[in-house]
Amino acid sequence: MEQAERTGDTAKLRDARALLGSAATEVNKVVTEAHEAQQRLVEVSRDQEEDFQRQKDTLANLASLGILAAGFGHETLGSANVVLLNAKQLDRNLRGGMFMVAPDVREAVEQNLIVLAKETRNIKDFAEFTLQTVRRDKRERKAVVLDQIVRDVFGYFQHSLDEKHIRVILDLPDSGTRPILAFEIDWESILLNLITNSIWAMEDTSAAARAIRVSLRESGDLLELRFADSGCGVAAGTEQDIFLPAFSTKRGVDGRVVGTGMGLAIIKSFVEQYKNGTISVIANSDLGGAEFMIRVPIPELASRGNKAGS
Fold first, then answer.
1. Contacts for 82-89 with beta carbons within 8 Å, 24 or more apart?
2. Residue 234 pLDDT level (bands cut at 50, 70, 90)
3. Domain that holds residue 123
4. Is residue 258 part of a domain?
5. Which residues of 111-127 are buried (b: 16+ CB within 10 A; e: fewer)?
6. Cβ contacts of 133-137, under 8 Å, gap ≥ 24
7. What does pTM read for this prediction?
8. Which helix (H) or strand (E) holds 218?
9. Residue of 256, 243, 249, 260 lying closest to 58 (CA atoms)
10. Claim to verify: residue 163 and residue 254 sit in the same structural domain
11. Which of 36, 87, 204, 266 reaches 20 to 30 Å from 239, CA-CA?
């Protein structure tokens, strides 16, 4: 009887040891997997930290460029005005017979003066836009009417767009849109980035087919801005990638990536500052190129005592 009990106890002890050994093995396995997962997490975190630092450095560089652009605007605006005035005076003197030149030479000089005046106006327009964009009041959040900003931005660059044979279609409500709370400088940057991208995208589009269309609509409590062009569109499969920092599909003549790849990422960050603010892209719109759709909420400003532009 005692022998049987001892045999039974030994078996139970053996089973307990086996169970404990199995449990220990399972624990070791879990610990090992947890350690490996932790290592992967550390590696991913390190990669994300490095990516964040690169984005931070890029944004810092862009901020520095903004400061330089403002300085450039101040310096070149005065110079552009002087060049433009002198070009016009030289043209008047030439046409007034002050210079004795042969007819063929006169024609060449007149064409050179036309080009000089035209390009100087481009510099002047950009300098004026840069200076008015960095005004302090445009860096204050306030009630703004977006369709007016659209008109103002395209008004500044209409001359340059005309020269590139780009037809602009502004599909804006006659009665205007309700104001939104915004930084004017953000929306000017959004539009300028989209215009710049469109100009690049239409480089290989025939002059007769070049077009940019901007439409504004209210959809319930959301304001919807659509921006389309007749350019090369967006490559299939990159619809989400194009909003990533440092991602760029632009290539120079040598095949290298050009630009910072930050334009659309900055636009996305501006839009997503709004609750329920979204941006999406259609790779090929009815115009042939890409179409971006931005939606932001329209706040109840009347109940807060705010007025547009105040």
1. 83/116, 83/120, 84/117, 84/120, 84/121, 84/124, 87/113, 87/116, 87/117, 87/120, 88/117
2. confident
3. 1-134
4. yes
5. eebeebbeebbebbbbb
6. 133/185, 133/188, 133/189, 134/66, 134/69, 134/70, 134/73, 134/185, 137/184
7. 0.58
8. strand 211-219
9. 260
10. yes
11. 204
Task: With cut-offs at 50, 70 and 90, classify the pLDDT of residue 308.
Answer: very low
Torsion of CA 78, 79, 85, 87, to 10 degrees: -160
Residue 157 has pLDDT above 50, yes or no: yes
Residues 1, 126, single domain; the answer is: yes
One-letter amino acid of 301? L
CATH of the domain at 163: 3.30.565.10
Q: Encoding tokens for residue 169?
A: 């279609």
Q: Which residue has the tokens 């340059």?
A: 160
Q: Are residues 163 and 97 in the same domain?
A: no
Would you say 168 and 212 are in contact if contact means Cβ atoms under 8 Å apart? yes
CA distance 271 to 295: 8
**Poorest-pLDDT segment among 87-91, 146-150, 185-189, 194-198:** 87-91
Mark whether 155 and 295 lie in a shared domain.
Answer: yes
**What pairs with residue 280 in β-bridges?**
293
